User: Fold this.
Amino acid sequence: MKKEVVLSGIRPTGFLHLGNYFGAMRNYVRMQDEFNCYFFVANWHSLTTHPDTKELQNSVHRVIAENIACGLDPAKVALYVQSDVPEIAELYLYLNMLAYKGELEKTTTFKEKVRLQPDNVNAGLLTYPVLMASDILIHRAVKVPVGKDQEQHLEMARNFAERFNYRYGNVFPAPQAFNFGNELIKIMSLDGNGKMSKSENQMNTLYLADDDDLIRKKIMKAKTDSGPAEKNSVKPDYIENIFTLLSLVSDPSTVKKFEDDFNNCIIRYGDLKKQLAEDMVKFIKPIREKAADIQNNKDLLKKIIHQGAEKARASASATLTEVRNAIGMNY
Ligand code: ADP
Ligand code: TRP
Assistant:
């Protein structure tokens, strides 16, 4: 049986963090044996918000290195850089003719970015979801492992695919957001203010490149309170987040101990954070060290990126031929 196609991308706009790992990369790694996987660095997308390219090459290399350090095997998947696949840009052009200004302006991420960068509301920002749909549809992917914040973009990709199929004939399957749990995971920042993120609120985000002491320092500063006043209380979301992190990196008996302490109102948040800090150091350290090794080996990186581009272009050009045939642009 033919394997289902899986695709996802990460923007090279800063250091990867635990939200990226648990919301995205962990799933990539789990999927690589079972599916036909395409994972890429969305460097065109990063230009919509980060027009300065001084750091870009370094960031692209780091994202590739960190993905491999997290367990992605470039021999099993196509691991590539978006701008190495010009077929995506051509599909983006066709899909732009099927995307309406009104729906693009209503997109949550667009409105958010207009608020954040009112002086740079460029057309690329407006058509961001069209480029993302092109990334997905160019490989006719059906499963897209992403965090919760990307669900609206996936819905738009399905709309564009459907519109194309309706107008020109059936070329694209409908892509779906995918996560191994029932719910898409969202990792909040350590102060409880919004999500962990590549560029905002850096002292409250745990990065895969953070050294041991910095990890400890950030976790010990995480927001807590004086503890529950009644047995079996509902946890405030910043406490829930600490428990989420604990459940991701500590063993189940440790989690149970602190859950019980919380439910019995005898929890000591200082102890909880110390335990979390040590388990987090154990989790992040090997990833950080492996990523640094790969990143320093430029020849290896080049080889991996080149090999990924070849795999991605083979699939992309096959789709583009069908797209052109469907539109009738095959003279
Ligand atoms: P960031 O928001 O840090 O810039 P991206 O937008 O490039 O990261 O996201 C890359 C992937 O990581 C996406 O699939 C996104 O949904 C996921 N992701 C990012 N932040 C989080 C988070 N805090 N929790 C869960 N998933 C996240
Ligand atoms: N928009 C995604 C993000 O900010 C990154 C991305 C670009 C992507 N193209 C994609 C994710 C295609 C999945 C599929 O996280």
The chain has two domains: 5-184+297-327, 210-291.
